[in-house]
Write a structure and sequence with these properties.
alpha/beta, binds nicotinamide-adenine-dinucleotide, Rossmann fold, globular, binds magnesium ion, single chain, 7-stranded parallel beta sheet
């Protein structure tokens, strides 16, 4: 029986993780759960999964939740505030920690799980975008096991030789290129001249995946693929020149690995996050994930194209930032988070997201950072810079 902590349990990845756990009550038990502010959902999850601890970051509804938990007579202890996230991430009864908080808020708790030497199931790609080099050094130093949940990186991981899965170099094992696939999002064929009129509701309606709001907007701008490019660079220690983005609108091939002998290995499946989650939880075994088997006869066609820079400027800003280094990727992420939140709040048009990120990179993109304090300071500067440019 393995104990699991879920950081960001009330989100989309949290739902899928709990669904997989519920299918295997003999193998996994929930040790702790966290939510930002959705106290009602956290209560329902506590009553169902009976964790030892639950964290509510936003204290406003904490007295209500504590009273409800007490009324229900459960054993769950309620902790409040950000610092408690790091506490549950290092819970001694947990073998695995699902890092599924969205955005920079996930960095410190995910690092806490790494420092506690856990098997870390990494959904929170922003943590790696902000701190890749430092993060991977911490994984090695503390003997943590990092398994990718992002479907593309999980697909690459599955398509790599075992030695590379264990951290050995790609080149030495004949790997020449990582091919990162992406659907192109909801606006792949929308008239470019109408991009200024894109509404938040249109941007979050992804054609193939059901996800949280921020990552859905990132998928529409393809900043998500850019963040994944940076994520792949660090996870697999792959030079940016050896990573290629390929549009594949059907989202059936989740990514591929090219080898020196001409082989290309791909991982396929229906677009359902329970596959990479179950893979990473059970690795190196396989367990049922509740995912519909892929039916090749109803698939129709697979197609592939190159991403158009005019349609997806955020993708290319991210690739350039990756080449520029850690300071640039920290600023890219910070600026993007603020710009996406402003777009979702109706404060700026869709096209301003790329503009604001570009301006932030022009201002701070050459900064160098070498430690966590520097990364957090640059993250704050990037956010403030974009905040100052938002309309009132
Ligand atoms: P979501 O918005 O559905 O859920 C986010 C979770 O994080 C919630 O539990 C929320 O309470 C918590 N949270 C939000 N802000 C917080 C804060 N400031 N402090 C603490 N907790 C906070 O998001 P999601 O779609 O589940 O995505 C989670 C992460 O996984 C993201 O980094 C995303 O890029 C990544 N990811 C998601 C998918 C997917 O299919 N949803 C796929 C690949 C990667
Ligand atoms: Mg992905």
């Amino acid at each position: 029986m393995q104990g699991v902590v879920i950081l960001g349990a009330t989100g989309s990845i949290g739902d899928s993780t709990l669904d997989v756990i519920a299918r295997h009550p003999d193998q996994y038990r929930v040790v702790a759960l966290s939510a930002h502010s959705n106290a009602e959902k956290l209560l329902a999850l506590c009553l169902r999964f009976k964790p030892e601890q639950a964290v509510l970051v936003d204290g406003a509804k904490a007295p209500w939740l504590a009273a409800e938990l007490k009324k229900a007579g459960g054993k769950t202890e309620l902790l409040v505030g950000e610092a408690a996230l790091c506490e549950i991430a290092a819970h001694p009864d947990a073998a695995q920690v699902m890092a599924a908080i969205v955005g920079a808020a996930g960095l410190l708790p995910t690092l806490a799980a790494v420092k506690a030497g856990k098997r870390v199931l990494l959904a929170n790609k922003e943590a790696l975008v902000m701190s890749g080099e430092l993060f991977m050094a911490a994984v090695r130093e503390h003997g943590a096991e990092l398994l990718p949940i992002d479907s593309e990186h999980n697909a690459i991981f599955q398509s790599l030789p075992y030695a590379c899965q264990q951290g050995q170099g790609l080149k030495a094992h004949g790997v020449t290129q990582l091919l990162l696939t992406g659907s192109g999002g909801p606006f792949r064929s929308r008239e470019l001249a109408t991009f200024g009129a894109i509404t938040p509701a249109e941007a979050v309606a992804h054609p193939n995946w059901s996800m949280g709001q921020k990552i859905s907007v990132d998928s529409a701008t393809m900043m998500n693929k850019g963040l994944e490019f940076i994520e792949a660079r660090w996870l697999f220690d792959c030079p940016p020149a050896d990573i290629q983005v390929v549009l594949h609108p059907q989202s059936i091939i989740h990514s591929m690995v090219r080898y020196a002998d001409g082989s290309v290995l791909a991982q396929m499946g229906n677009p359902d996050m329970r596959t990479p989650i179950a893979h990473a939880m059970a690795y190196p075994e396989r367990i049922d994930a509740g995912v519909r088997p892929l039916d090749f006869f109803s698939l129709g066609q697979f197609s592939f194209e190159a991403p158009d820079p005019a349609r997806y400027p955020c993708l290319y800003l991210a690739i350039d930032a990756c080449k520029a280094g850690q300071g640039a990727t920290t600023v890219l992420n910070a600026a993007n988070e603020v710009a996406v939140a402003a777009f979702l709040a109706g404060r700026i048009p869709f096209t301003s997201i790329a503009q604001l990120v570009e301006e932030a990179l022009a201002r701070f993109g050459r900064e160098t950072v070498s430690d966590l304090a520097g990364i957090l300071a640059l993250d704050r500067q990037g956010r403030q810079f974009v905040e100052n440019r938002l309309p009132c």
